[in-house]
Amino acid sequence: MTTARDLAIVALDVASGRSVEQGDLSLALAAAEVLDLLDAGAITLDEDRIVPGPQAATGDRLLDEASASLVRQEPYETVEDWLWRRGRELASAYVHDLEKIGLTSRPRGRRLPLLSGRTVPVDSPARSAAEERRASGEPIFAALTAAAGVAEKEPEFDENVVGEVVTTVLAAVGDAVMELEAVRQRRAIESSAFDNVWRGGV
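Below the sequence we write its predicted structure tokens.
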């Protein structure tokens, strides 16, 4: 399993107990894909730009899709630009894919079987592996779960241990999530102000 799939499984497990923002999760999944592609040798980073290598199958459908969508002309794409472009609706794509390959199920209700419950992971070796990875406190995975809103707080990690390339990716996703939260807050303020005006408030 890839880091992105492990993250998606853990997020679905946690989402049954509390809300996980789809936008934050999508950005974190896009960052996880960058790390997976780095591990596969499909890309390298030149400072913050993603430099594609020879295109080859990774054995994972969504990761192959990510690889195929890389910008292959100079000056190439920054990690931040990738996160926003690739991250669009990426959480939904992983949810649907996990369900398609039988790693999740949708609880059925009596009246509306298709709408009665959210998708949840089924007991499987993949789920156990993802949970073990989360419980291990692995710094990179912990940082991704924090960015996705799955963990309570972002862990501290040593750049000398995880490396400059990984730090660049984790810093980019952290900045993107903060930017997205700022947009949410601005919209909430604007919505509240509009409601006050509509109701004749001040």
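Confidence is low (pLDDT under 50) at residues 110-116.
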